[in-house]
Amino acid sequence: MTIDEAQTTTAPVIDSLEETALVGPWKVVVMNDPVNLMSYVVLVLRKVFGFNEPRARKHMLEVHEDGRSVVWCGLREQAEHFAFTLHQWHLSAVLEQNETD
Amino acid sequence: MKRIEVKLSLAVVAPLLDVIKSVSKSLDNTIAAAVDFERVDADLRNEWRDELVAAQNGEVQRLLALFDSEFFASGVVNFDESNADAILRACAAVRLQLKGQFLSALADEALESGKVEMEAMPDDERRYFMCYLFLATVQELVIEHLEPSVS
């Protein structure tokens, strides 16, 4: 890797650190809807989960393109809290048991 | 506190408000978003639903209250950090209800891409769609000006 390349490869490190949070017995999954604006979904994900802009945008695009995105994993009680909060923002969100844990 | 004032054309917006009010009324005691209560803990289900409905009703009332007698005198609505979240959520609720109950003939793909031919719509449907667009514009204004760090 050249010095120039090294200077442009810092963001994925931050991403991979954040991705490690996606483990736990319960998943919060945001489902696509044709109504809510992309900018609105990004805003909600940032407010509810404290995501930075790139991560919120990544999840929003996943929802838009794949129909769903796992946005959080962890204990049931907190997963319920997040799902409820997403419902308050009128996003379609479901709880799923994480069968890999 | 950040605040924006938006001057709207009364001639354009006033006719939409009656539609928005009637759509809002149709929301009473129902939740605009698709919530799969089968996946919610049975012990929490009723409380979950009641709290969502109560919050939604309160936020929709705040949206409608923007268009009071002062608005009809000046054409101006005010948004600030104290009402931004409620207005954003109310707009989302009413837009979801518009799509679900009054614009269901429009394909999801057309709505998502914005490729909707308004000229071909029946008058009623066009009015609902104008409301749908108007509320999206309100959301975009609030997100752009009151939530600059997350826009």
Inertia-based shape of chain A = globular
Beta-strand residue fraction of chain B: 5-15%
**Structural class assignment of chain A:** alpha+beta
CATH architecture term of chain A = 2-Layer Sandwich
Over all CA atoms, what is the radius of gyration of chain A? 15 Å
Query: How is the main sheet of chain A built?
Result: 3 strands, antiparallel
Q: Tell me the strand order in the biggest sheet of chain B.
A: 1-2
Largest interface: A-B, 27 and 33 residues
| Helix/strand order of chain B, N-terminal first | EHHHEHHH
Secondary structure tally: strands of chain A: 3
Q: How do the strands of the widest beta sheet of chain A line up side by side?
A: 2-1-3
What's the total helix number of chain A?
5
| Share in β-strands of chain A | 15-25%
- Report mean pLDDT of chain B, rounded to a whole number: 91
Briefly note the structural class of the backbone of chain B. mainly alpha
Helix content of chain B: 55-70%
Return the domain count of chain B. Answer: 1
Can you describe what's shown?
The complex is a heterodimer of chains A (101) and B (151). Chain A is of the alpha+beta class. Chain A contains five helices and three strands, in the order ααβααβαβ. Chain A starts with a helix and ends with a strand. The model of chain A is unreliable at 1-20 (pLDDT under 50). Chain A has a single domain (10-97), classed as Ribosomal protein L7/L12, C-terminal domain/Adaptor protein ClpS (Ribosomal Protein L30, Chain: A, 2-Layer Sandwich), CATH 3.30.1390.10. A three-stranded antiparallel β-sheet of chain A has the order 2-1-3. With 151 residues, chain B is mostly helical. In chain B, strands 1-2 form a two-stranded antiparallel ribbon. Chain B is globular. Chain B starts with a strand and ends in a 5-residue tail after the last helix. The A-B interface holds A 31, 33-37, 39-40, 42-43, 46-47, 53, 56, 64, 80, 83-84, 87-92, 94-96 and B 31-36, 39-41, 44, 48, 51-52, 55-56, 88-89, 92-93, 95-96, 99, 108-109, 111-112, 136, 139-140, 143, 147, 150-151.
